[in-house]
Amino acid sequence: MHRAAKKDLSRVVGEIGGVQAQVMSAAELQAGVRVDCRVDDVRDALWKSKNLVKTWLMRGTLHLIPAEDLPLFTAAMRTHWMRARNSWLNYVQLSEPEFLGLVEAIGEALDGQVLTREELVEKAVRGRPEHIRQVMRSGWGMILKPVARRGLLCFGPSRGQSVTFVRPQQWLGAWREVDPDEALLEVARRYLRAYGPATKEDFTRWWGSWAGVGKAAWAGLAGELAPVSIEGRRADLLASDSERIAKQLTAESVVLLPPFDPYVMGHSSRDHIVEAANLSRVSRTAGWISAVVLVDGHVAGTWTHVAARNTLRITVEPFGRLSAKTAAEVRRRAESLAEVLGLAKAEVRVG
């Protein structure tokens, strides 16, 4: 896989629909395997140039996406497919009016402010009933996620050991209004460019398992889709992408993908890239997605790493015997990862 130039960092992150940032070090490596950059470049893009932004989006999970794309994604999440479910409201013990009022209060609290979690909670619940204060103090993450998806909150620079939150429009200095229904279709187009062929069920799972969202997106894109058969199962891609994808299918490559990599997260099932016997080594307990060795688009093993004495030490656990050519390419990829992390060299041990 050829890495893009450093200047294209935000573009590449946008082309894959963002990188999952629940584990920030993994997000930095997800960018680094695709772009000729270091982890410090990713951090600079977040906190200095502000070309990237960190917030909760798909699947209620933290992502890094291009700052210019945030209005598009948050608009798509304001469609009627993203309403708060009654079961969720019951779980957090809020009525819908209380929940909507709290969302607005959090947005107002961040107006012109950079606040830690504790500061935000205190300001947003001031003057509100005690049960709302308790919800915010015990389950603040569940409340902040929908606020972020409405474009009223994103992460600001850390203050010591504390994370901070800001209003995206003010932090980024630019914003555009996007029609929610058109935004959903554009996000679905981008998904298909990155992950097609795929099904509307794949898109629904990637988006966050909201009933109806895949059906709505596929209906809106009906005139742009080209059906294909994958082992007797129908999937779709954008008709305009057919030639490009055909060329990709013939490309040979060896790649070391970090934990939670978008390539592994893009479909509702991983059967097309991981043999069933090895699936539990990739999709592990508690939702952990392993770092994988990708050979010609299929997972051939997992890997772990430690950094010590300016050296990146990678241990590969292959699912079968690696050819000499593949092992040599793994070592070359490991050297690239060492550069991403600002380390002098890499050592690889194959289990």
Biggest sheet, strands in spatial order?
9-10-11-12-13
Overall morphology: globular
Q: How many domains, in number, for the residues?
A: 3
How many separate helices? 17
Class from helix and strand fractions? alpha+beta
Distance from N terminus to C terminus (CA atoms, Å) equals 24 Å
Care to count the β-strands?
Answer: 13
Write the layout of secondary structure elements.
Elements: H1 9-15, E1 19-20, H2 24-32, H3 39-47, E2 52-56, E3 62-66, H4 70-76, H5 86-92, H6 96-109, E4 115-116, H7 117-125, H8 130-138, H9 140-149, E5 154-159, E6 162-166, H10 168-172, H11 180-195, H12 200-207, H13 213-220, E7 225-230, E8 233-238, H14 242-249, E9 254-257, H15 262-265, H16 279-282, E10 292-295, E11 298-308, E12 311-318, H17 324-340, E13 345-350
Parallel strand pairs: 12-13
Antiparallel strand pairs: 1-3, 2-3, 4-6, 5-6, 7-8, 9-10, 10-11, 11-12
Question: Overview of this structure, please?
Answer:
This protein is of the alpha+beta class. The chain folds into 3 domains: 77-172, Arc Repressor Mutant, subunit A (Orthogonal Bundle), CATH 1.10.10; 181-250, Arc Repressor Mutant, subunit A (Orthogonal Bundle), CATH 1.10.10; 252-350, no CATH class. The chain is built from 17 helices and 13 strands. It has helices spanning 9-15, 24-32, 39-47, 70-76, 86-92, 96-109, 117-125, 130-138, 140-149, 168-172, 180-195, 200-207, 213-220, 242-249, 262-265, 279-282, 324-340, and strands spanning 19-20, 52-56, 62-66, 115-116, 154-159, 162-166, 225-230, 233-238, 254-257, 292-295, 298-308, 311-318, 345-350. The strands form 4 sheets. It has a 5-stranded mixed beta sheet with strand order 9-10-11-12-13. A 3-stranded antiparallel beta sheet has the order 1-3-2. A 3-stranded antiparallel beta sheet has the order 4-6-5. The longest helix has 17 residues, at 324-340. The two termini are 24 Å apart.
